[in-house]
Write a structure and sequence with these properties.
By secondary structure, the protein is mostly helical. It has a single domain, classed as Growth Hormone, Chain: A (Up-down Bundle), CATH 1.20.1250. The protein contains 14 helices and 2 strands. Strands 1-2 form a two-stranded antiparallel sheet. β1 and β2 form a beta hairpin. The radius of gyration is 20 Å and the shape is globular.
Length: 432
């Protein structure tokens, strides 16, 4: 693969012509904020459910799963159309609008005084997250040239890992910090979410003034959003590599939501069983989550480098195998407060999880035709949403009915199955 020298060289990356270094830096920051806010919601939501709404402990898993499933049902209706629309309008305006809607939802969320009202406010968040998500994923594919795609995706994952660290050791402590400052548990939860809303507004401003505002391909105006979405879907029939990217999205998105929704909840429930307060349990979850971030720091740049030098379908098979091993190992941990085992398992999980994320995004960028890249990103997100629905609905039920680590074991099976599909495609195409 040779770079187009009409584009700019930015560090190790060749950028697509018309993309500036400011655009690239702004994208990395925006991606950082997107992941931070998405992680923030999953990490702090158990506090709202238990401390503000007083949901019984034996119902937390089910309520969490249903809220996430509702969120993803909304995403199914939003993402496909938004992805196709972004091919026409450009990604910037789509992402700005999405982040602002998201900010409104975060500001409203802790004001709910019932589960039903919480679902209403989650609707607002879901629209904002879904809209911004498609633009972020499509822009990730737009900015790098093909020779730099693996390194770009790996670097982005490396950077966004610090966003998760910001939440796990920073924002996750806010409820206790506000309580120590004299606020009630309810007010502490509300103030924490309003900090999140302020960060979403700031991210929208960075996107507005930092992202490239144009389009990367000419689009027929007579082509409807639905037609373009269906084109992105039908392209997978002709291209097994694109089909595999979509399938990886199913597993990788499920992976992320299981960690986001059930990791801290695992600590919360296990802590309650052992007499540990909700605030302290979430802090300890944040401490062990550092192991996952450390794994990303070490592995993401390395795996991105690998993706630029080997067949990406084969690398995807390796990535999904690592994810399966990581989730299986975490599922075998009996007590999350046994710090040595919890940290070791979480580190291994981090390697597998980030491998799946990087591989799926790099494969999407490689296989999606430029003319329908936004539509393909929409399909990628829709399939990923189906994975999230599966993970949250089934994960929530088995968390309450089978055990606190059952969602992790479930995702080990899913990732293993995708690894087998990737191996089959690799063998069939002759790329061993």
């Amino acid at each position: 693969m040779e770079a187009d020298t009409s584009g700019i060289k930015f560090g190790p990356f060749w950028l697509t012509p018309s993309v500036s270094r400011v655009n690239a830096v702004s994208y990395f920051f925006s991606s950082f904020m997107f992941v931070a806010l998405a992680t923030f919601l999953g990490f702090i939501q158990p506090y709202i459910l238990s401390e503000v709404l007083q949901i019984p402990a034996d119902q937390l898993g089910t309520v969490t799963g249903r809220l996430s499933a509702f969120h993803e049902c909304i995403a199914l209706f939003v993402m496909g159309a938004i992805g196709a629309l972004s091919d026409r309008t450009g990604r910037r305006i789509i992402c700005v609008v999405g982040m602002l809607i998201w900010a409104v939802g975060l500001a409203l969320y802790p004001l709910a005084d019932s589960v039903l009202q919480l679902f209403g406010f989650r609707l607002v968040i879901a629209i904002g997250v879904s809209t911004a998500s498609v633009a972020v994923i499509a822009t990730m594919q737009d900015y790098p040239q093909e020779p730099s795609r693996g390194k770009w995706t790996g670097t982005n994952s490396f950077i966004t890992s610090f966003a998760i660290l910001l939440v796990s050791v920073g924002l996750a402590r806010l409820p206790r910090i506000f309580q120590d400052a004299g606020f009630t548990s309810i007010d502490a939860g509300r103030l924490t979410f309003w900090v999140g809303a302020s960060l979403a507004v700031f991210a929208a401003l960075v996107i507005r003034f930092g992202w490239y505002g144009g389009r990367f391909a000419r689009i027929e105006k007579t082509s409807s959003a639905l037609a373009r979405f269906l084109e992105g879907l039908s392209e997978a029939r002709r291209n097994p590599g694109l089909a595999l990217a979509y399938i990886v999205a199913f597993a990788a998105r499920g992976d992320l939501v299981v960690i986001g929704s059930f990791y801290s909840l695992w600590f919360l429930r296990a802590g309650a069983d052992q007499g540990i307060s909700a605030g302290d349990a979430i802090v300890r979850a944040g401490i062990t989550m550092i192991a996952l971030q450390f794994a990303v720091w070490v592995w993401a740049p390395v795996f991105g480098w690998i993706l630029d030098r080997v067949n990406r379908v084969g690398a995807t098979a390796l990535a999904m195998s690592l994810a399966a091993i990581g989730y299986f190992t975490l599922g075998e941990v009996d007590n999350p407060f046994n710090i040595t085992f919890a940290i070791a398992a979480t580190f291994l999980l981090g390697i597998g999880e980030i491998s799946a994320v990087i591989a799926g995004n790099a494969l999407l960028g490689q296989e999606a035709p430029l003319r329908i890249r936004g539509a393909a990103a929409g399909v990628f997100n829709v399939v990923g949403t189906l994975g999230i629905l599966f993970a949250t609905l089934v994960g929530g039920e088995i968390f309450d009915r089978i055990g606190y680590t059952a969602p992790f074991t479930m995702m080990a099976i899913v990732n293993g199955a995708v690894a087998l599909i990737a191996i089959a495609i690799c063998i069939k195409s002759g790329n061993r």
